[in-house]
Structures are given as structure tokens and as C-alpha cells.
Write a structure and sequence with these properties.
Strand order of the largest sheet: 3-2-4-1-5
Helix content: 25-40%
Protein name: Peptidoglycan recognition protein family protein
Number of domains: 1
CATH topology: Lysozyme-like
Family: Belongs to the N-acetylmuramoyl-L-alanine amidase 2 family.
CATH architecture: 3-Layer(aba) Sandwich
Structural class: alpha/beta
Pfam families: Amidase_2
Order of helices and strands: HEHHEEEHEHH
InterPro entries: Amidase_domain, PGRP, PGRP_domain_met/bac
Strand content: 5-15%
Amino acid sequence: MSMIVQPKPSMVSRSGWGATAVDLSKTNNLKNPAYIIVHHAGDANDAIVKAYPDEKAAMRRYQQIHIGQGWGDIGYHYCIGINGTILEGRTDTKEGIHAPGYNYRSIAVMLHGNYDIRSFTSTQQNKLIDILAWLCYKNNISPSNILGHKDVTATTCPGSGIYSKLSSIRGLVMDRVYPQPQQ
């Protein structure tokens, strides 16, 4: 089976959301990623998206928290806001900080909010499928290697609202990247 070209979805650039400039020159390059790992912010009581309902402001806050933890930048490569906006995170040429043991071989996609308590909307799901299909195509990653954070670490991430749909999302990405011929 050959892959079908997947377009890069529309997204807000780092400058578009007001990212703090960072120096990742000492961060390892990400080479030949084999996995895409889906996360949620998972903040207690959904606090950040409640305090920062503007998706760009929420991105700035997540970046501040991660820099404050010594991560050098936001730990995720791409994020999806509560309204479904895709936002560029850490450059996908550098290792993320999101899943110990997998950072060097995976791309991270995080959804703003806590999906153990928040509803995962169809708009967010569609945007997640768009970015996952593009990342699979761009990096020659099998859709079967789209994982939830809990698949590689003892955590509840990406939250039950997302994780319960991850198998069907994987299938939808597979159908998009490797469509079956019509008979």
C-alpha cells in the first residue's frame, strides 16, 4: 500500500501565539520518529483553560510552565486548543519532553484541557485526525503507531474522553493515509 499525500493542516505558528523565543541548540535532534503520542494537559480541575480560554494565551501559559520546569520550551510539538485550533509547539526537529523513553523517537500532540473531566468535541477530533494524518504522511509513520501517553507511561493521559476514541481515530487516520480502492 502506498501513502496518499496529506496536506499540512492550517495552524497558528509560534509567532502567531506569541511564543517566547528559546534556544534549543543543546537539545537532541529528533531523527526518524516512529511514533506519535497523544496527550492532554490534564491540569487539575481544567484550571488553565478556565483561566485562559483564549487558546493562544493558554499556549503561552503552558510554555511558561514547561520553561519553569527546566524543559527549555513547551514539551509538545503540536497542540490543539479547546476550540479546535492547531498550534505549533516545540519545533518537530528537536526531541520533545513528553514521554520518557519515547522522546527521542516520537512526536507529541497535546490537547488543551483535562479530558478526564472535559468533553472531547467533534471539532477537536477532526483537527486531531488532520494533524495525525499529516504527521504520519510527513514522517512515514504507520497510523498503528499513534499511541496515547498511557500506552507508554503509567498515567491517565490523554484522559478517558480521548483515549476511549483513540482506536477509532487510528482507523480514520489509516483510512485517510492508506485509502482502500473502491470496488
